[in-house]
Every structure is written in structure tokens, then in C-alpha cells.
Write a structure and sequence with these properties.
Elements lengths: L1 H26 L3 H9 L5 H17 L12 H14 L2 H9 L8 H9 L4 H10 L1 H10 L2 H14 L9 H7 L2 H15 L11 H5 L7 H18 L2
Helix pairs in contact: 1-7, 1-8, 7-8
Length: about 230
């Protein structure tokens, strides 16, 4: 039992820290990273995909108006789709559209590269504490993936909560979800901070942005809109 409890707690710790670090390192690469990636594009193809999917498409191409508006209008969506067709291979373009412009995770190509880094922690935990602790921590490694797949779309589109599964609906209507929305609101406003959906790692790594008075007022208006959309 001790191994299960320790494995679970350490697994959650590993998962939230890995999410914050990985989101920052792969989703929001620095200039020196991008210089290296573009110098050796074949070698760094997987991380270039993450860069384009997340920072370019999810942050710069979509949700430019507010947290709940993916495209300003149909014309903007058509322009982005045209850019995707001209920029990427057919396979990668189809993945972008399947994942709703990096809103969720779909298929092996979209899910496996996201999940794999989260098993570094459980492997280390298993080496230190044994296979039972590894098993417990490995289960926790899937939590960020589940949050990215099922909760992240609802952060941006709360009107879809009513059509989600019963478990997801219950999680989406908790106070925890409101804190996730707050964290993600700040992430889109200050994109080099607040990387977690599984909260905690941002605090530990010192990359959590606190709300200013202006942010607080803007967020209160946003949550009123969130509640209205959730009830539609």
C-alpha cells in the first residue's frame, strides 16, 4: 500500500512538472531552439511539429480575439486552412484539422508524442521504489493527456460541456475547472507562463503569472461569458 500511495503522489508531481516544462520547452521554444530546429529540420521534425501545432496555430493563428473565439469569421478560417494546405504535408495538415487546430488530441500520431515524455518520471520512480510504485505513477502519467484531450477543448468552448461524457461534465463544472480556465486565460495572455492544466508544476518551476487588477476584471467578465456559454 505504501508503494501505491508514494507512486501515486510522486506520479502526480512528475506529471504536473513534466507538463509545465514540456509545454514550455516544446510548445514555446526559444529563439536558440528554433535556430537549431530549422538548421536541422529532419532531426528535429517532431519538435517542429509541436511548435507549429501549438505556438503558431493555437496561439498565433487562432483565438486571437478572445479565449472563446477560435476564428473571427469564416473568411479567417478559410485563410488559415489555405495556409495550412500550402505549408504542410497532407498527412500533417489532416492531423491539424482532426485535432481541431491543436484543441485536442487524436489518434496515435497526435497522442503518442504527447504522452511519451510523461513516462520519464515513472521510470525513475520505478527504479527507486519498485514496480508497484512504477505502476501507480504510470497511471498518473496519463492525467495530463486526458486533460488535454477532454478538458482543454471545454476551456475554449464551454458550450460543448453539455454534450461531453458524464464524468467530463462533472469535472468541468467544478471549482478546479474554473482555476484551470484562469490559468489558461493567463497563459494565452502571457504565453511564457502558466502552462499547466494539471495545476502545480507552474508554481514549482517558478513560471506562474499572478493576476493583476486589470487581469482580474477581464477574467470576471470572461467567466460570466463562460457560465452563459456552459448553460446554452
Amino acid at each position: 500500500m505504501t508503494e501505491i500511495i508514494l507512486g501515486t503522489l510522486l506520479g502526480l508531481l512528475s506529471a504536473t512538472v513534466t507538463e509545465s516544462f514540456g509545454h514550455r520547452f516544446f510548445g514555446h521554444p526559444s529563439r536558440w531552439q528554433l535556430k537549431l530546429y530549422f538548421k536541422y529540420p529532419r532531426l528535429f521534425y517532431p519538435v517542429l511539429k509541436a511548435y507549429y501545432q501549438h505556438l503558431v496555430i493555437h496561439h498565433h493563428k487562432t483565438y486571437r480575439l478572445d479565449l472563446f473565439t477560435q476564428f473571427r469569421d469564416a473568411e479567417e478560417k478559410q485563410e488559415i486552412d489555405s495556409w495550412i494546405r500550402s505549408k504542410f504535408s497532407k498527412k500533417f495538415a489532416n492531423l491539424i484539422w482532426l485535432e481541431r487546430y491543436n484543441l485536442t488530441l487524436k489518434g496515435i500520431d497526435g497522442t503518442l508524442p504527447f504522452v511519451l515524455p510523461f513516462f520519464v518520471g515513472p521510470i525513475l520512480i520505478g527504479l527507486m521504489l519498485g514496480p508497484v510504485a512504477f505502476g501507480a505513477s504510470a497511471v498518473m502519467a496519463f492525467v495530463p493527456m486526458l486533460f488535454s484531450k477532454y478538458l482543454h477543448p471545454l476551456v475554449h468552448h464551454p458550450e460543448e460541456i453539455s454534450s461531453a461524457s458524464l464524468i467530463v461534465q462533472r469535472v468541468a463544472r467544478t471549482k478546479y475547472m474554473r482555476r484551470v480556465v484562469q490559468n489558461h486565460f493567463l497563459h494565452h495572455k502571457y504565453s511564457d507562463t502558466n502552462f499547466n492544466l494539471l495545476l502545480g508544476g507552474d508554481y514549482l518551476l517558478g513560471v506562474r503569472q499572478r493576476m493583476s487588477k486589470e487581469d482580474r476584471l477581464e477574467f470576471e467578465v470572461l467567466m460570466e461569458k463562460f457560465d452563459r456559454k456552459m448553460k446554452v
